[in-house]
Amino acid sequence: xxxxxxxxxxxxxxxxxxxxxxxxxxxxxxxxxxxxxxxxxxxxxxxxxxxxxxxxxxxxxxxxxxxxxxxxxxxxxxxxxxxxxxxxxxxxxxxxxxxxxxxxxxxxxxxxxxxxxxxxxxxxxxxxxxxxxxxxxxxxxxxxxxxxxxxxxxxxxxxxxxxxxxxxxxxxxxxxxxxxxxxxxxxxxxxxxxxxxxxxxxxxxxxxxxxxxxxxxxxxxxxxxxxxxxxxxxxxxxxxxxxxxxxxxxxxxxxxxxxxxxxxxxxxxxxxxxxxxxxxxxxxxxxxxxxxxxxxxxxxxxxxxxxxxxxxxxxxxxxxxxxxxxxxxxxxxxxxxxxxxxxxxxxxxxxxxxxxxxxxxxxxxxxxxxxxxxxxxxxxxxxxxxxxxxxxxxxxxxxxxxxxxxxxxxxxxxxxxxxxxxxxxxxxxxxxxxxxxxxxxxxxxxxxxxxxxxxxxxxxxxxxxxxxxxxxxxxxxxxxxxxxxxxxxxxxxxxxxxxxxxxxxxxxxxxxxxxxxxxxxxxxxxxxxxxxxxxxxxxxxxxxxxxxxxxxxxxxxxxxxxxxxxxxxxxxxxxxxxxxxxxxxxxxxxxxxxxxxxxxxxxxxxxxxxxxxxxxxxxxxxxxxxxxxxxxxxxxxxxxxxxxxxxxxxxxxxxxxxxxxxxxxxxxxxxxxxxxxxxxxxxxxxxxxxxxxxxxxxxxxxxxxxxxxxxxxxxxxxxxxxxxxxxxxxxxxxxxxxxxxxxxxxxxxxxxxxxxxxxxxxxxxxxxxxxxxxxxxxxxxxxxxxxxxxxxxxxxxxxxxxxxxxxxxxxxxxxxxxxxxxxxxxxxxxxxxxxxxxxxxxxxxxxxxxxxxxxxxxxxx
Length: 861
Fold this sequence. Notes:
The chain is an alpha/beta fold. The protein has 36 helices and 23 strands. Strands 9-10-8-11-12-7-13 form a 7-stranded parallel sheet, sandwiched between helices. A 6-stranded antiparallel beta barrel has the order 1-2-5-4-3-6.
């Protein structure tokens, strides 16, 4: 078995391939092993894991007329060649099936205008731009962002193309594209055409490419691969020893976190971190105490909020001269703190670049002042009747004048401190005396030099040389030469800043879908990239799909630390056939859960710093067996508010409306808007409020209504509306939860999922307000029954206020959404059609072996 090169030079192969229809026809649903075999049989490069092969496989999966099947994920895999091959084939199959489901459910993301640019076959490209109406309504920065189309799949005249090159012209707001299709066609044979942007597939391509490579070649670190395949067999770690003392000067650490940092002894380690238990702090101390010298680490998160939280902790060490971090991602999305540590921003703040820029600026100012001074002197010498063009502001910029002003200030300060009378050191009188003396000297020079103005010496005839003010001219030449050298040095510093930044980086930080950017850095900066990636830390590991494991292994990391909470949301995996398939085959199970079920040791964090103690007790009892406790400082901070004001349930009995397969509740929308207008805590513009809801249409209805009645709160970012899925990894002082479900059948759908409930009620730092039908949720599921009962006993519960004006607006808009979804054709798009209806159906009930009855989280129909 050949050893895998850590930094291969990957080339894109655009070979002619048969279309899926020609290869498979209109057959019934086929096994994914057969699909993979036929897709890879006619290309040697595909079997070697080339990027072109991965892209071609994805394009064929996108046009497949039959759905691709997922393969079940086993608990353990052996280290034999057959077992490891089976693992990587499973990852490939599940990636293709998920990508195909995402493509079919995504629909059209963006419509562009396209035309040919250049000569076909030579330098032709497809030039695309936004439609005129879109350009008129979008900001220039937003337009350029939408035109970044590399690794997107486009539909042009009914044919799919993969974009391999995208060059955006900022002046014309257009992008030149290169790409290929399954038939080998290139994006150059089209005149005026419409271009549909269907899906960004770069993440799928990178993961699939890594799985293809690892199937054929040996992993960069076989020891880590063996433990990933079989977590029940531990392998010794290569992390640095922790020593007798953990350095906590920059960031405090509690006993649970210390124990977790010290206990990292195996290649794969698990740390269980419930909400608010300081996972970011634990990451900081792992890197600060266990990372060997001259080695680097990779930290990945699922959400940009988590990236920002980790970057905020690590920034302390970065600015203090310790661990240097590099954030890989879009500066506009990763967050305020993390955005300061992207490659572009770090290059702007590079020490050498800053020094050279400062030197060039100082020399430029000096050169400009000297040039103006020389010009003014010449004009005064040859044309004494003209007034001076040298302004006071120009004179004050001269370094010599600034030094003289500082000298005068120091003299005045000394005179004042020495106890002299104020008349003796009065600044105004002192400056006027100096100025009068200077004017007298200048007048004397002018009188004495008057005869020289008419001398032949001034006509440039002395010794055959032109007259110059020699001292100023020589200084001007020296400064000009120094300025040119400084500009040249600045250009060199800017050109090498990226290499220097990558070379000095100790921690690479990115979201897990952007993990391929680490691999790209390894290829682009082969000589400057750190020699060892000792550790990869996966924050939110319980929400990271196992199909990312080939990407982690391909990076060449030596150790893997998984931090997460398996009680919160599991990985999001799209499936054409519905959730029942991926749950039955354990496709949506994270590697962290698989390792736990295989017997891998779990280090737990038990002290939380986010929620008020009264809310922490509820979350702890429901999900963590009562082992989660609140730090004493948080308990003391929450005593002033009063426990009865922390938890509040506002009852709304208005019925839900169906929007496709989703739901909205206009009564809850009116109650939430009224709450933001009347609540003393929530109407404060200095307090951030996060509104969480279980359904996307409800989030859209909330945003529209808030934009109408409280636009300033929404525009300032003081109030955010998110779904439960988007809320994971974030927190806010005040949380308002809109439950939506309200019906006579007491059916709450996927709101019964305990993972969603855990995320929804554990985001609050000060108060949690639930808006919904308490009777429906009290009689629906045991967990929700305990939540409602806890609110009744430990909080406040009363009917919500729903002003008629707000209620009418929300009701009208909700009915429009319901009517539009009723008229829309079924089966086209995410959440509609037959596949989505099966998503909440209980597979165990269908097989006659469900024992949960009414308590089951899935539908029995």
